[in-house]
Amino acid sequence: MDPTILIPLDGMRFAEQALPFAEALAQATAAPLLIVHTSEGARHTDDLKDQPEPGSYLERVVNPLRQRELVVLTTTASGEIVEAVTAAAKHYPIGLIVMTTRGRGPIGGSSTAQQLLAQLAVPVLLVREWHSPHFSSSLSTGARIIVPLDGSTLAEAAIPLAKKFGAALEAELILLRIIAPRMAWVPASSSGSELVRRQATAQRYLEAVATMLKREGIRATVEIAVGDASEGINAAVVRHNAALVILTTCGQNTSAMAGLGRVAKVVCWCGLVPIMLTRPPIMTETQFHEAVHAPPDGTLTVDPGSKLILLDRPQPAQPETPQPLFPYPHAC
Fold first, then answer.
1. Are β-strands 124-128 and 219-226 bridged in parallel, bridged antiparallel, or unpaired?
2. What is the C-alpha to C-alpha distance for residues 319 and 156, in angstroms, rounded to an integer?
């Protein structure tokens, strides 16, 4: 069975705002939809008598989708949404979860997305309540997708996912690097030259990534901005009229990586378009700190094993060739 796009619904209109976005991606990728209907939402509303019966509710939701020739599967569950989705993942190959979020509530809590990312290692597309359903029409052929990259191998975990949806949508990937105006350890007298140097390094890095993508038939352009990362991402969305942001989050089930990353949180809560979050494989704390910090200098190379753009960094002598930190064929 092809990987499915899963949408958790609880009978509340708020959760249904994810449906148009899931439908747009299903149309582009020819993936079946899997609707997981849970009764969790009923426990969080004061008007229980207005909760529809599962059968009639699913018919109302599913029939229009099937009339548009989409393959739609359904399953019902009781209990917490994370438990319901995890149970469904045991029976269906899940390629993407699409859900609404308001940062609180049964289906919209940030902890829900965090737990799903940690337990299933499946990308999650988060839709906010102000993302009007008509915005989903921009997830079509020729869409622009913002892919923030900071030069770290952690951020590069978003590249396979961006390639997948970039190809499906015939999209243009905007490879974005946001540079802080001044590093804390750089003297003020040297900040100008240091910024120019970092911009040049970032330019070489992004151009190398873009070249790799173009060889695989993916349209890609590069952009560098100076300022706050989350504000810079939202500004890029406006400049390019982008439809989607694809971002790596460091949220994992270890103490060093607990929670969604700061930038991912801000972009999610204040973002102008939906954000698709993915994470790299589980790492030790040492591996995480090595992956999250981009080296200050280096020559760009392509790792022939993983086909990833990496910055060379000084390495101690090793008895044998070290393995790539991220096994990218399995990253998403």
1. unpaired
2. 27
Q: Over the Cα atoms of the chain, what is R_g?
A: 21
Residues 6 or more apart from 237 whose CB is under 8 A from it? 146, 245, 271, 272, 273
Query: What is the pTM (predicted TM-score) of this model?
Result: 0.78
For residues 39-59, average pLDDT: 61
* C-beta of residue 129 within 8 angstroms of C-beta of residue 280: no
The DSSP secondary-structure symbol of 107 reads T
Residue 90 token pair: 């045991």
Token pair of 166 as six digits: 């970039």
Contact yes or no for 97/126 (Cβ under 8 A): no
**Whose CA is closest to 225, among 241, 245, 239, 213?**
239
d(CA 149, CA 143): 19
209 confidence band (pLDDT: 50, 70, 90): very high
Q: What's the maximum distance between 2 C-alpha atoms anywhere in the chain?
A: 69
The DSSP 8-state label assigned to residue 91 in this structure reads T
List phi, psi (to 5°) of 176: -115, 130
Tokens of 70: 């989409």
Write the CB contacts of 162 (distance below 8 Å, at least 6 apart in sequence).
145, 147, 173, 246
319: helix, coil or strand? Answer: coil
Q: What is the DSSP letter of 252?
A: -
Q: Which stretches of the chain are assigned E, i.e. beta strand?
A: 4-9, 33-38, 72-77, 94-101, 124-128, 144-148, 172-179, 219-226, 244-248, 275-278, 300-303, 308-311
Judged by DSSP in three states, 24 sits in helix
Q: What is the DSSP letter of 315?
A: -
DSSP assignment letter at 71: -
CA distance 188 to 123: 41
Q: For residue 51, what pLDDT is reported?
A: 55
Q: What is the DSSP string of 166-199?
A: HHHTTPEEEEEEEE-SS-TTS-GGGHHHHHHHHH
Strand partners, 186: none
